[in-house]
Write a structure and sequence with these properties.
about 25% strand, single chain, 18 strands, 5-stranded mixed β-barrel, 13 helices, 6-stranded parallel beta sheet, pyruvate-formate lyase- activating enzyme
Length: about 450
């Protein structure tokens, strides 16, 4: 049998899709990228926005039209958060959520034998174990994404994820060491640790994200990078200890959402702008050559022009290396959806464009600041555009002309001197082809 996967959403979903692929291949099912030839289609859904829900629904209908005999499996956050809506999708033959996906082969086998529709979304308890599906789907890539944390306890007023993922839970350290070791043995040169609320890794047993980085650093000559972080659990002690780990990459994506304290309070974010700024100072103290990137939401309910201006000034003050800007979208089921004073869509769009222009300026400032510096670059691909492409430790995309070397540099780490930049990349040349063993 052949199975086709369609994945929505974040890197965590990508990791989980890779895990489900391995589960199915271990049970004799082959993976295909041709939906018309597939016997099964697994839809790994996202539910961050209501429009995302619509895309999931439309994709299911589209796949069924393209292949009327295909078995549709709906899994992921949409099904978990809104099981009744998911059950009403008649085109979906098997419906399960974000829990117990290790049972997927059995569910498919049951459906094939009985022909009866399966609706099995089970609720999370207070103390659920971390479910690691395992995967080898990144074997062709230079970097691998490793999900080490799931769930969230924060309940921001705009976010449905605690209802779709349950409470915080973390991969045990011995399992983490084993998984990272397997990825190193598979030939990866960088591991990106990710989670739903990554900064809360180990919170169940009094641990921290530092424990995870140290654990992975013991597995071999590999670079370690962190995914998106909530600011409130990153301390001076953690940053100091991270700075002593040679292969740790100083790219910090610290989710801000707003630079206005009044908006942060309405969002139920657990920090103030002053606390966030203090954290950025600490990061730069311990990692002078770091990049701090962020997410910022515009048009949150009640956001005034003055509050938006506070965000603009704050973003410029911090000097982010990159900003992911997005408009607030009403998410039914959250507290913010019931708030009065919803901002007009035209105002949201205008503010988004203004903040994006600032973000572009700040990004170019960061890239320009790297000119003249020599940095270790892990090369990942040759895209046929005349350049070898890789990433510096701070996440900057670095390119060197292919004519500088005829051999493939993929999965190799070399020092590169930065000479120029454009809006999104830096360009340079290898420094005497000296191999960089560490970051």
């Amino acid at each position: 049998m052949l199975c086709y996967f369609y994945t929505f959403g974040c890197k965590v979903n990508t990791c989980e899709t890779a895990g489900m692929e391995k589960l199915l291949t271990d049970n004799g099912i082959e993976i295909t990228d041709n939906v018309c030839k597939a016997d099964i289609a697994v839809i790994n859904s996202c539910t961050v926005t209501a429009s995302g829900d619509s895309r999931v629904q439309n994709t299911i209908r589209k796949l069924k039209k393209e292949n009327s005999n295909i078995i549709i499996v709906l899994t992921g956050c949409y099904a978990q958060a809104f099981p009744e809506k998911a059950y009403n999708l008649e085109c979906a033959d098997i419906i399960t959520g974000t829990k117990d996906r290790s049972c997927l082969p059995e569910l498919i086998d049951e459906y094939i034998k009985t022909g009866k529709r399966i609706c099995k979304v089970t609720s999370y308890g207070k103390e659920e174990p971390f479910e690691f599906l395992g995967y080898d789907g990144f074997s062709k890539n230079t970097r691998a994404f490793l999900k080490i944390q799931d769930g969230c306890n924060c309940f921001c007023t705009y976010c449905i994820i605690p209802y779709a993922r349950g409470r915080c839970r973390s991969m045990p350290l011995h399992k983490l060491h084993e998984a990272a070791h397997d990825l190193v043995n598979a030939g990866h040169r960088e591991i990106v640790l990710c989670g739903i609320n990554l900064a809360f890794y180990g919170s169940e047993w009094g641990g921290s994200i530092l424990d995870a980085v140290k654990c992975v650093s013991d597995t071999g000559d590999i670079r370690i990078r962190l995914g998106s972080l909530e600011p409130e659990r990153i301390t001076n002690e953690i940053l100091y200890e991270l700075s002593k780990i040679p292969r740790f990459c100083p790219q910090f994506h610290l989710s801000l959402q707003s630079g206005s304290d009044s908006v942060l309070k309405r969002m139920n974010r657990r920090y103030t702008s002053d606390e966030y700024e203090s954290l950025c100072r600490l990061v730069r103290k311990h990692f002078p050559q770091c990049a701090i990137t962020t997410d910022i939401m515009v048009g949150f309910p009640g956001e005034t022009q003055e509050e938006f201006n506070e965000t603009l000034k704050f973003a410029e003050k911090i000097g982010f290396a990159k900003i992911h800007v997005f408009r607030y979208s009403i998410r039914p089921g959250t507290a913010a959806a019931k708030m009065e004073c919803q901002v007009q869509e035209s105002v949201k769009t205008e503010r988004m464009h203004i903040l994006q222009r600032l973000g572009e300026k700040l990004q170019e400032n960061h890239l320009r600041s790297l000119i003249g510096h020599t940095v270790p670059v892990l090369f990942e691909r040759e895209k046929g555009d005349g350049f070898h492409t890789g990433h510096a430790p701070d996440g900057t995309v670095v390119k060197i002309p292919e004519k500088n070397t005829k051999k493939s540099l993929r999965k190799s780490l070399f020092y590169v001197t930065i000479e120029e930049n454009d809006a999104a990349n830096c360009y340079g040349h290898m420094t005497d082809s000296i191999y960089a063993n560490q970051t």
